[in-house]
Amino acid sequence: MRLIEESPIPMCLYTGKEMKVEVINDELLKVWGKDKSIIGKNLKDVLPEMESQPYLALLDEVYTTGIPQSFKNSASYVVKDDSITNSYFDLWYKPLYDENGKIYGVLASGTDVTEKVIAQQKTEESEFRFRSIVEHATVAIALTKGPNMVFENINEPMMRLIGRYENIIGRKVIDVMPGLSGQQVEESLNNVFKTGKTFKGNEIATTLLINGKEEDRFYNISYIPLFENGAVIYILHIAIDVTEQVISRKKIEEAEESARLAIESAELGSYQINLLTEEMSTSERFKKIWGALNSEIKRSEFASYIHEDDKLIRSEAHQQSLASGKLQYEARVIHTDKSIHWVRVNGKVLYNEAGKANYLIGVVQDITDQKSLQQQKDNFIAMASHELKTPVTSIKALAQIVEITLLQQGATKEADMVKRIDTQINRLTNLIADLLNITKLNLGKLEYNRTSFNFNDLVTEMVRELQLTTLQHAIDCKPFKPVQVYADRERIGQVITNFISNAIKYSPDAKLINVFTKAADSEVVFCVQDFGIGIHPGDKDKVFEQFYRANSNTHQTFQGLGLGLFSSAEIIKRENGKIWVNSIQGEGTTFCFSLQVK
Ligand code: ADP
Fold first, then answer.
1. 3-state SS string for 443-505
2. Which of 122, 222, 269, 597 is most deeply packed, by most CB within 10 A?
3. Atom number, ligand 1, closest to the C-alpha of residue 563
4. Does the beta carbon of 433 sit less than 6 angstroms from any atom of ligand 1?
């Protein structure tokens, strides 16, 4: 009896099948929230809530069978002051026998383990929560235990990241990924375990064996130590694969570096203009090329350095760049010391998402030396061709006189030879005329004499004249609507001649040349189509360049200087028209120009 009463563990002795409370200690009375007045009463009357719990039945079983029972962490509740108190007990029910060996009661004792159970539940709950966070996280997470880094947990993104899909729980990191040995990540991991300090590293280069292939990749990594009783037990691994970002950033850095080197080695000055705010920033070389000594000057001030005669070229180029996206012009700038320098400006317009031009970036180059060399060359060619013109004209006149004289003397054979000399002189005259034209164009001396003229008459006239130069080709001029054009008639005639004589020259085996004109309300389009050798697609844009000659590697040789189309393009450009070509190699070519109708 005293044993029960003095026990620090809640205890009670029940007697009879009805489980009458015979002896009970204070510890248990405290748990139930009762006093000694319950002694002598049956358990089910003392605690009616026992009806809905298994204990009455269990006590009865012990009483009936005589088999003692014990339970761990057994949940029970009692109603105290109208509220329910939950508790957990480690219970032990033992049958008690009388001197005849018959069971007369049950001794119940129980240790209150409520705190322990709740703590355990909390740990389980947080472990469960942690596990589901790891499992559902989109970043790669793993948990390792101990200094050997044994995998405790790993989520799908981490499995993908390390390229291992089999079950690796319970295996050491270094066994799963032997390649890590000696790499920075291995050292960092060990350090976290030793020091208990979190490791955070960005863009850590790591070589991993993924699908049997070694891959160099970059990761942002965190190793977080988790402690138990002050010692590191676990390490939480978090990794983000940043390989693509790192590679593309490196590419951009390399591209920027090579662009910078290219700009430097080409002695280019660079600039950037915010078209919305007009703010302009330039490299030091830009300022040097522009001759702007003051380092803090505005865009409008840079513009004021441009030579008066070239201001229009600049503003038109800027205007056009907004539509085309590209800026290109050559102009003179006057340095602060009054010296004049030629610059070539190139630029690219950048547009924002709304399609509005917001930036202009580009480079400038000092082309003064180039220009002066070009000028010297042009001056020389102009002078030489001019000087050649006089003797060639005299030779031509003399040859014609000799031809007539020989014919009169009946020396037809000799006269024919002189006639051939005359043909060659004509070629020479054409070449000299080409050269003179071009130098005049380059030196800006070609004067334009604009009138309003009937375009149809001009075409018919040219076709008739050029038909005389070829017996092989029929130049078919399709009829068209009469149209008046305001331009330099002679220069336009020169372009038409160039188109048709090229068509004759570059279609040595063809019989037909088509000439057609289309007149609309605002413009007239003129085209010459031949069925000759055609132009290689790569040469199409270049044929309008000075001295450019395509087909130079074909077995046929065609005489020429590569100047005709260049001067044609210059003339059409100055008349505000357009010039273009369509061609299929081996099938033929169509050259066209268009002019505005006024
Ligand atoms: P060229 O004096 O060499 O004829 P052009 O400036 O008139 O000079 O023409 C430039 C180049 O364009 C020529 O060398 C030739 O290769 C090519 N070309 C011009 N017209 C034609 C054409 N109708 N068919 C094929 N190639 C042509």
1. CCCCCCCEEEEEHHHHHHHHHHHHHCCCCCCEEEECCCCCCEEEEEHHHHHHHHHHHHHHHHH
2. 269
3. 6
4. no
